[in-house]
Design goal:
Helix content: 55-70%
Radius of gyration: 17 Å
């Protein structure tokens, strides 16, 4: 690829990502607010957030959980968020003894309680282990949020709330997912700080 071609590629990628983000928020701003309130209310009630996904979405799950357990922008008490993608002994034993499709569902069965939030990230909307996790979460009375791409796939109707980035491009969807995750962190921190709801949360 020539220097001119590379420059055009760079411009094109940034333009596509920006346009997709603008289009998503124009259509789904209210859904982002709903997701922020759902997670905030769960934290208010002393419940936790369970986050999961595969590949780049697994990295997103870990990044998202870390922002709550440690901090995003505010100095505040830790908030209870767990990425279900980090314990290699749990992941490999479930995959070996049962099936990789159960790696998140089995952890939700062990850790999830009614009132917790299960947030699954799948750019296709069709990852079998994310779908099984939503099914288990619903059986146990957890609130459910799907972050997906394309048309939402099978995950969207399984979740209580779906944040669908309407693109078939995995990288572009992941870029918008990260912006959504950061927005949710900021909204939730601000809501809890304004409501003086820190006492008893994560102390």
């Amino acid at each position: 690829m020539t220097d001119k071609g590379e420059r055009e590629l760079i411009r094109q990628v940034f333009q596509e990502s920006a346009e997709l983000g603008r289009g998503f928020i124009a259509a789904h701003l209210d859904r982002v607010l709903q997701a922020a309130e759902l997670i905030t209310e769960s934290f208010r009630q002393g419940h936790k957030l369970l986050v999961f996904g595969n590949g780049g979405s697994a990295a997103d799950a870990q990044h998202f959980a870390a922002e709550f357990v440690n901090r995003f922008r505010a100095d505040r008490p830790a908030l209870p968020a767990i990425a279900l993608t980090t314990d290699t002994s749990v992941l490999t034993s479930i995959s070996n003894d049962y099936d990789y499709a159960l790696v998140f569902a089995r952890q939700i069965a062990a850790l999830g309680q009614a009132g917790d939030v299960a947030l699954g990230i799948t750019t296709s909307g069709n990852s079998p282990n994310v779908l099984r996790a939503f099914e288990e979460a619903r059986r146990r009375g957890l609130r459910t949020i799907a972050m997906t791409g394309a048309d939402g796939g099978k995950a969207a109707p399984l979740a209580e709330l779906a944040l669908i980035v309407p693109s078939p491009s995995t990288p572009r969807v992941q870029e918008v997912h990260l912006v959504i995750e950061h927005l949710l962190c900021e909204l939730i921190e601000d809501r809890l700080a304004q409501e003086r709801q820190w006492t008893g949360i994560g102390r």
